[in-house]
Amino acid sequence: MNLWHSFGCCIFMNRVLGMKHILQRTFFVVIFSTITMLGVFAQADVISDAKLAIKAGSSKELIRFCNDMVELKINDESANYSKTQAEFVLKDFFKKFPPNDFQYIHQGSSPEGIKYIIGKYTHGQGSFRVLIYVKQFKGKYLIDLIDFTEE
Fold it and tell me: How far is CA 85 from CA 41, 70, 73, 77, 80, in A?
């Protein structure tokens, strides 16, 4: 009787421990999936919110989605700016060329994980082709480059 009881307990404990490992694995898969999805949503938010900020001509809103240092190119003039400096440059750009519309034409990503967006910015006197690079910095997706090239 004792042997049967001991054998039954061993089988029961193996099942319990097996379930514990399955539950732990499931927990880690769920947590990893959630973290991954949050990164995807954060990336999508940056891309869609940046579009709205450019369309509104809001340097203050657009700069929220930029890295601490951001490269701005406007018609062959290129420089790296702090967020504060970039906000002034963008404010001046939007003042000179108030937006009529801004639409994304194409989106993609490089093998290195850099997301890029190509868009068309229209204003009263013409339009600009816009290239935006979005990279991941410290777990957040942020704009690393904005290039306005007059068409």
Answer: 28, 9, 13, 15, 9
